[in-house]
Write a structure and sequence with these properties.
Structural class: alpha/beta
Helix content: 25-40%
Oligomer: single chain
CATH superfamily: Glutaredoxin
CATH class: Alpha Beta
Strand order of the largest sheet: 2-1-5-4-3-6-7
Number of domains: 1
Order of helices and strands: HEEEHEHEHEEH
Number of strands: 7
């Protein structure tokens, strides 16, 4: 188990703290436009989770992600979900949010890899993908694939610039 935790901690560390959140426009599930900067920084850690409604890992892990959000919202961390299903599949994305009774905000983007890669700099591999932003809005970690939320909690608790 310690090796697994070490693997995830190492995997969450590849980004420098000098990159800030990109200015991206996204829509919420009702079609209203939002800027990514509305959700990142502002004195709280922000974990952005890119997901797709048909992603097996996303469906399996989303309850733990929601529990993390409930535990830390209004404190020092929050979750922002971003569906990469695109507007053509908005009904499926809405069903995902409803089926899992998600309490964190969820936005939707088109499945355009050049646009999606702007979230965290670097290649987009697939869903889920996690991006961790500091309370100042600097991106400090990313991870493609499932990540137990206790690993993200440990990363945030132990983060040093």
């Amino acid at each position: 188990m310690k090796k697994l935790i070490l693997y995830f901690l190492i995997a969450l560390l590849p980004l420098s703290a000098s990159a800030t959140a990109p200015e991206l426009s996204l829509k919420d599930m009702s079609g209203k436009a939002h800027q990514l900067s509305e959700y990142i920084g502002n004195g709280q850690w922000t974990v952005v989770v890119l997901w797709a409604e048909d992603c097996v890992v996303c469906n399996a892990e989303i309850a733990g992600i929601d529990r993390f959000h409930e535990k830390y919202k209004g404190k020092n961390a929050r979750i922002l979900g971003v569906s990469i299903d695109g507007w053509d599949k908005i009904d499926l994305a809405r069903d995902f949010v409803k089926r899992h009774d998600l309490s964190f905000p969820n936005l939707i983007v088109e499945p355009d890899m050049k646009y999606i890669e702007k979230f965290g700099g670097g290649d987009f591999i697939g869903t889920p993908t996690f991006y961790i932003y500091t309370p100042e809005g600097e991106i400090v970690a990313s991870q493609a694939g499932g990540v137990p939320m206790n690993i993200i909690e440990d990363f945030i608790s132990n983060y040093k610039k």
